[in-house]
Design goal:
The chain is of the alpha+beta class. It contains 25 helices and 22 strands. It has an eight-stranded mixed beta sheet, with helices on one face. α3 runs parallel beside α18, α12 packs antiparallel against α14 and α17 runs antiparallel to α18. The longest helix is centred in the middle third of the chain and has 27 residues. It is globular, with a radius of gyration of 26 Å. The two termini are about 35 Å apart.
Length: about 650
């Protein structure tokens, strides 16, 4: 009974992923002459003679793991730089944008680095950096990477070169998993409970660390395979970089709840180290803080600044970020700390090593986000639409020539669309677009109007030969949506996406294009889930659990039903009233209904075990771990209305039954 529900809930939340490497290099095609020419032209457009970033990225190097290779406790490869050895070639191949090649080479410089005596960083042993500070009695860790395996390996690398002091404090700069997921690789929960280790985070950290992936987690996880190129084989025709870092560490996540919430703009002394904090909530992350270290004269900007243009809108899908507020917080640290700062570090990329360059860098980053915001809104107020704005908005030359403003992760194009979306939403005010046909139907009719599949393919091949890859990709999208079985359309669409990937400066765009090309040719990349993570499950608020149930209600199964279920978490003293009505599930906290169809009670650990797939609701009821008073069928009936979203839904062809 209820085999579905055992695996239906929160399959994306805290699910570590292992992606099989796809051999797309065996079926990929070389760069065309058009792509090679466009990539060659980039060399004349940007200041490649400026190599200071390479000097900055190597400065303070102390040592590295052989090939940067890290295995987890099960023997799986969590991180490996050996497949990226091809980046040692000086010149970019025709199949990689030279600007992205440059960033990929910088992100291949990995290991342990000294910032100043007493402050060190682990770089490019995961997507983010781990900063290590030597306090009076032990170590302070800032952002312990994405996975315990990489965090543990990074700390052990530090111990190879410095004294083996215990970790006494961990600081999470913000609520994205690559900045907390490896915490159990550097500390254990028992020491935290015993008070031997303190964990600091900004206000709202736990709520946002869990919440982002609860409601839309399934869709975000699937789309993240495109953004990060998960599964693409490293190589000159495959994965080269994400822009933000080399790649995602592989494996499960961990989380230990903070023991201390850092007040807004606080000044704290942690193990003898004075830290001035500057909050930056609602910018790159919902809960985020930067920090200044007076005794080191070092400013750590977390992920508010980076050596590129970040995402105002992230293509995996997320709430639009506030670019104007983002800019203001950069200006705040510029005013508060720049004249006292000798070195600037962040939790991605490499440091900036002198005060004059730091001021310039902060000014560039501040103006970069504000310019995109302001000019998008200016064009929007002139009546221009998102596509027009994305096509026409260009950075001023003073920003365009700055390496730290290049679009390796975010782009001017998709960030401008994000700013428009934040203010105006999806509708462009043209009534013809108010209620358009669904995509598959519109594509079918469009192909018919264009003369049918054979004629469209004939014209598209001519356009491909002319190097008009954006148009060919768009037309083949329509043809594949009209007829997913058209093999020629899939192959030509893949060819066009592949060339666009080779041309892309953004690591995220390259990955998206190449994953799309692979899936047109071979089908969906299927990751192996290594399981939901107990730490994240235990941190899930019960109200979030009910919200996640609500977005999985199948309206056909729920049609005409009205159920009221009392739900009590007895060991935590939490009561909830669930109401299913009009095929909609709502809940109220702190309330029970005397007329409920059923009353359900359990300990929190039982619910966690169900979410972790260690048991199921029917098994827990049968064993007595869940008590149900009233109509048991009402309780099970509600659970049967929940659908399991497909983890590997299609992106490059229509979802649902074929016409």
């Amino acid at each position: 009974m209820l085999p579905l529900f055992k695996k239906a809930m929160l399959t994306a939340l805290g699910a570590g992923l292992l992606f099989p490497m796809i051999a797309q290099a065996e079926t990929s095609k070389p760069a065309t002459a058009v792509t090679a020419q466009l990539n060659q032209a980039v060399l004349n457009e940007l200041p490649f003679s400026d190599t200071r970033s390479f000097e900055d990225a190597r400065r303070g190097f102390m040592g590295a793991l052989p090939d940067g290779r890290v295995l987890d406790n099960e023997g799986h490869v969590a991180w490996d730089m050996a497949p990226y050895a091809f980046l040692q070639a000086d010149a970019a191949p025709d199949s990689v944008n030279p600007s992205l090649w440059r960033m990929a080479q910088l992100n291949a410089i990995h290991g342990l680095f000294e910032v100043v005596e007493g402050m060190y960083q682990i770089r490019n042993m995961d997507l983010s950096n781990m900063t290590i500070i030597e306090g009076d009695s032990g170590l302070i860790i800032i952002d312990p990477l994405l996975t315990p395996a990489t965090a543990r390996a990074g700390l052990e690398l530090y111990y190879q070169h410095r004294s083996r002091k215990p970790v006494v404090a961990v600081l999470y700069t913000h609520n994205h998993a690559d900045h907390f997921g490896g915490v159990k690789g550097v500390v254990n929960e028992e020491d935290v409970r015993a008070g031997k280790v303190r964990i600091y985070a900004p206000e709202g950290f736990m709520e946002h660390a869990i919440a982002e992936n609860v409601i839309a987690g399934n869709a975000m996880t699937r789309r993240a395979t495109y953004q990060f190129g998960a599964g693409l084989t490293p190589g000159v025709r495959g994965h080269v970089d994400t822009g933000l870092g080399k790649a995602l560490g592989s494996g499960g996540l961990s989380l230990i709840a903070p023991t201390d919430t850092v007040p807004d703009n606080a000044n704290l002394t942690i193990d003898g180290i004075e830290i001035d904090f500057q909050m930056a909530h609602g910018t790159e992350a919902e809960s985020e803080m930067m920090m200044y270290f007076p005794q080191f004269r070092v400013l750590n900007t977390a992920e508010i600044t980076s050596q590129h243009l970040h995402n105002i809108y992230t293509i995996r899908g997320a709430a639009i970020r506030d670019a104007s507020s983002w800019s203001r917080f950069i200006d705040k640290v510029l005013v508060r700390f720049a004249d006292r700062t000798d070195i600037l570090v962040a939790q991605h990329h490499w440091p900036i090593w002198n005060p004059e360059d730091i001021t310039h860098f902060l000014e560039v980053q501040r103006d970069l986000y504000k310019y995109i915001h302001d000019q998008t809104v200016r064009m929007m107020n002139r009546g221009m639409l998102p596509g027009d704005i994305a096509e026409n908005l260009q950075l001023p030359e003073s920003l365009n020539q700055e390496w730290s403003a290049r679009g390796y992760y975010g782009t001017v194009s998709h960030n401008a669309r994000g700013v428009y979306q934040r203010y105006m939403g999806w509708y462009d005010a043209n009534p013809a677009n108010l209620n358009p046909l669904p995509p598959r139907e519109e594509s079918r009719r469009t192909i018919d109007y264009m003369g049918g599949e054979a004629e469209v393919l004939r014209k598209a091949r001519e356009d491909f030969a002319d190097g008009d890859y954006r148009w060919v990709a768009s037309v083949m999208r329509d043809l594949v949506y009209a007829n997913p079985e058209n093999r020629e359309a899939r192959e030509l669409g893949a060819d066009a996406l592949e060339q666009l990937g080779y041309q892309a400066e953004a690591g995220t765009w390259r990955s998206a294009y190449l994953v799309g090309a692979h899936e047109l040719r071979h089908g969906v990349i299927t990751p192996k889930h290594v399981g939901l993570q107990p730490d994240l499950m235990q941190a899930l608020q019960i109200s979030m659990f009910f919200d996640s149930m609500a977005v999985r209600i199948d309206p056909e199964k729920a049609a005409g039903e009205h159920l009221v279920i009392n739900w009590s978490i007895t060991d935590q003293g939490e009561d909830y009233r669930l109401n299913l009505q009009n095929a909609t599930l709502t809940h109220r906290s702190g309330e029970l209904d005397e007329r409920a169809h059923a009353s359900v009670s359990m300990h929190r650990a039982v619910l966690d075990n169900i979410l972790l797939q260690k048991t199921s609701f029917p098994e827990a009821v049968e064993s007595g771990e869940i008590q149900v008073e009233g109509a048991v069928d009402a309780f099970f009936g509600l659970l049967q209305m929940l659908e399991k979203p497909p983890a590997n839904f299609s992106i490059i062809e229509p979802v649902g039954e074929k016409p």
